[in-house]
Amino acid sequence: MLTLRQIEVIRAIMIAGTVKGAADLLGVSAPGISRVMKHTESQLGLSLFSRTHGRYTPTEEARDIFSQISEVYNSVDNLQELIASLKVGGGRTAGFAAVPSIAHHVFPAAVKSVRADFPNLKLRLNTLKIEEAIDYLLLQRGEMVALSYKLDHPGLLMVPLYRGTLKALVPADHPLAAKDAISVHDLAREPMIGIESDDPYGRILMEPFLAENIDIDLSISVRTGHTTASLVSQGLGVGVTDELSIAGPTIHPGIAVRPIAEPTVFRTYAAFNAQVPRSAFADRMVTYLKQEMEAVKLP
Q: What percent of the chain has pLDDT over 90?
């Protein structure tokens, strides 16, 4: 059986017509080309070329072989082009989604890095609430969802991304802004802006208050941490949010962001359909999400 190297050498001689020309075409030495040809002809038991004054002309017996060699070489060439295309995402589509707190800044930043690695990859992106993620993955509308809540579902695989803390938001001119850290007891005395605790993300934000046996009656109920920040900047109350919701260059100038005096934790995860193999694109997205989340961690 001919090897791909032998096929490559035969084709190069067919094109160049000389051993030296074939060697130049392949970037190797002429003696090396001659050795491969002698071995190939000995292996096949027939002469592929007639030699006249250093010129190589295909023999009549070998013309059918050359036709097949050209087809094989073209197939290998097409395969190499396909592989090169796949490396940059050619002909592929990836679907990713994120909850609002992650979709605000770190998700687009990670997508930018994925696009740089796979410039020909088509992307289908979504912003979802936590409860929408299960259908999105199990119905294979997309491959990965970046979440701020660990879903307990047998059909999902949860990959940890990040561990951070919650932050207190107060108007920049509010007396609490003078503190280095703000207690949930101080926040609870002010008009509170936030997400209802019947929402999974809202429960995460309310956990520091629940741990201190503080019941919160929200003055303004919203759907996202970014909206909370916008309303706090207008002086309408105080709030609690995660670090990712207030990341990026669009932080409102009228807000003071302070650590919460009591212990808090905020975790994020990448959720996948447990029955579907992960693509290289999703693995790269996970890597970049982790990097972007660590980059915005606040003291």
A: 59
Per-residue confidence (pLDDT) for residue 251, from 0 to 100: 63
Continuous H helices in the chain: 4-16, 19-26, 30-44, 63-87, 100-103, 106-117, 133-138, 184-188, 200-211, 225-233, 280-295
**What CATH number belongs to 166-264?**
3.40.190.10
CATH topology of domain 4-87: Arc Repressor Mutant, subunit A (1.10.10)
CATH of 93-163+270-295 given 4.10.230.10, 3.40.50.1970, 3.40.190.10, 3.30.70.1130: 3.40.190.10
Residue 206's pLDDT band (boundaries 50, 70, 90)? very high
DSSP 260: B
Q: What is the residue extent of each domain of the chain?
A: 4-87, 93-163+270-295, 166-264
Portion of the chain with pLDDT greater than 70, in percent: 91
Angle between helices 280-295 and 106-117 (to 10 degrees): 140
93 Cβ neighbours under 8 A, 6+ residues apart: 121, 122, 123, 124
The owner of tokens 């002469």 is 47
Burial 165-201, CB ≥16 within 10 A → b, else e: bbbbbbbeebebbebeebbbebbeebebbbbebebbb
Q: What angle do CA 211, 217, 218 make, to 5 degrees?
A: 105
Band of pLDDT at residue 291, cut at 50, 70 and 90? very high
Strand partners, 57: 50
Angle of helix 63-87 versus helix 4-16 axis, rounded to 10: 110
Instruction: Quote helix, strand, coil % in the chain, to nearest 5.
Output: 45, 20, 30
- Reported confidence tier of residue 42, pLDDT bands at 50, 70, 90: confident
Residues β-bridged to residue 293: none
Are 93-163+270-295 and 166-264 equal in CATH topology? yes
